[in-house]
Design goal:
- It is found in: Cell membrane.
- This is Cell division protein FtsA.
- Self-interacts. Interacts with FtsZ.
- One of its GO terms (biological process) is FtsZ-dependent cytokinesis.
- By secondary structure, this protein is of the alpha+beta class.
- It has a five-stranded mixed beta sheet with strand order 3-2-1-6-11, sandwiched between helices.
- The two termini are about 25 Å apart.
Length: about 450
């Protein structure tokens, strides 16, 4: 039995004013990243007021992913080996032993739904039990068959139909209501990710939506307050989180990403996948110039090294990349049009993820989305290695600060779970909470 058998993923406790250690694990379609950090209490930051702790990175790793497609596990054994390797490398650098991780979820057809729930007050005034009872009812309504709740974020309360209440506890009313944003994912996708971590003798402390934690990493508080959309462009999927009033108000995603650009290149120029990925990384652009048709490069033919390499122009490569990138941003535009983001015409879009680093993505996104667009990079981190400062590390760095925002979410009462040991000897402790200090 896992922590998802009640359609709820494990959640972390709000942080206390003390030092603690956390580890994040981002299992993507192209890479697996693991980060280990100490969180130390720090004075408020004007741009990042929600952060109560400074992050001191002590270990990290990044390896090629295996056994994952579009954010979902497709080969349990291969994915387990890759996760073990990534965690071991980070542990070796940090010189600590990791017992539990914060885990991101990028697949599973994520969907954010605004839920309204209300109930009569039993004792005349609103209590914490009333808030928990009504919010739990809303969560159960949002989590349909085969879905699991990743986040339950109350965005406002109502007393006898009067909305805009910030903290209703102790206030007198006959009826109490809550408006909340519930982010759900396919339960099978989340369960298999948890199973991989279990087989590595690790506990899952909490699971979080990739675009949500990417937003915690790359957005300033002012951007979240005024309205912003974070587009996490991964290898196998693109996920979106929209913010307004400092809160997550919508989430969605689709199974298109940077890996599809690589496959288009491999088919279009007749190269092997590894060569196509290298060409995309070094020369990938969505912009074309007058000289691109005259700039030629030699590309080895896939399948037979003895064949004469073919000559391909940079314009051909740019056209292939641009067509798929345009398709991705057009789908992002359609998702944003169906979200509360459409009502905020001045809100900006922040791109993150590895695929966002293609040359010209900001210009292309600005034209298609008709919004201000920038590339998002981790903010407020003291010392990060150069390779971890880019947009591709938005999710694992966001997981490191995620516990500082745990107080914003509704957490169901925990049930005691027994230790499970299978015939292969791995532990099944899922849903255990962050170690002392959280």
């Amino acid at each position: 039995m896992t922590g998802l058998d009640r359609n709820l993923t494990p959640k972390t406790r709000p942080m206390q004013k003390r030092t603690a250690m956390v580890a994040s694990l981002d299992v993507g379609s192209s890479k697996i990243a693991c980060m280990i950090a100490r969180l130390r209490p720090s004075p408020p930051n004007e741009a990042l007021r929600g952060r109560t702790h400074a992050v001191e990175l002590i270990g990290y790793s990044q390896i090629q992913s295996r056994g994952v497609k579009a954010g979902s596990v497709v080969d349990l054994t291969e994915c387990e080996k890759a996760v073990r390797h990534a965690v071991a490398l980070a542990e070796r650098m940090a010189k600590v032993r990791v017992e539990s991780v914060l885990l991101s979820v990028s697949g599973g057809r994520q969907h954010g739904q605004l839920v309204e729930a209300a109930a009569d007050i039993r004792g005349g005034s609103v209590t914490s039990d009333d808030i928990s009872r009504v919010t739990s009812a809303g969560m159960r309504h949002a989590a349909g068959a085969g879905r699991t709740v990743l986040h339950a974020l109350p965005v406002g309360y109502a007393l006898d139909g009067v909305k805009g209440i910030r903290d209703p506890r102790g206030m007198v009313a006959r009826q109490f209501g809550v408006d909340m944003n519930v982010v759900t994912s396919d339960a099978t996708v989340a369960k298999n990710l948890m199973l991989v971590v279990e087989r590595c003798h690790l506990n899952v402390e909490a699971m979080a939506s990739s675009p949500y934690v990417a937003g915690l990493s790359v957005l300033t508080d002012d951007e979240a307050d005024l309205g912003a959309a974070v587009v996490e462009m991964g290898a196998g999927s693109t996920t979106i989180a929209t913010y307004s009033g400092g809160r997550l108000v919508h989430a969605s995603g689709f199974a298109l990403g940077g890996q599809h650009i690589t496959m288009d290149l491999a088919r279009g120029i007749g190269a092997c996948i590894a060569d196509a990925e290298r060409i995309k990384t070094l020369y990938g652009t969505v912009l074309t110039g007058g000289s691109d048709s005259r700039e030629l490069m030699s590309v080895p033919t896939a399948g037979d090294d003895r064949e004469t390499p073919q000559i391909v122009s940079r314009a051909t490569i740019a056209n292939i990349v641009r067509h798929r990138a345009e398709e991705i941003f057009e789908m992002v535009r359609d998702r944003l049009a169906d979200s509360p983001f459409a009502a905020e015409p001045r809100a900006r879009v922040v791109l993150s993820g590895g695929a966002s680093q293609l040359t010209g993505t900001v210009e292309l996104a600005t034209r298609i989305l008709n919004r201000q667009v920038r590339i998002g990079r981790p903010l407020g981190f003291g010392r990060l290695p150069n390779e971890a400062k880019g947009a591709s590390f938005s999710v694992p760095t966001g997981l490191l600060v995620y516990p500082q925002y745990a107080h914003l979410e509704h957490v169901e009462p925990r049930r005691t779970r027994q230790l499970r040991t299978g015939t292969d000897g791995y532990f099944g402790k899922v849903g255990r909470w962050l170690r002392e200090g959280f």
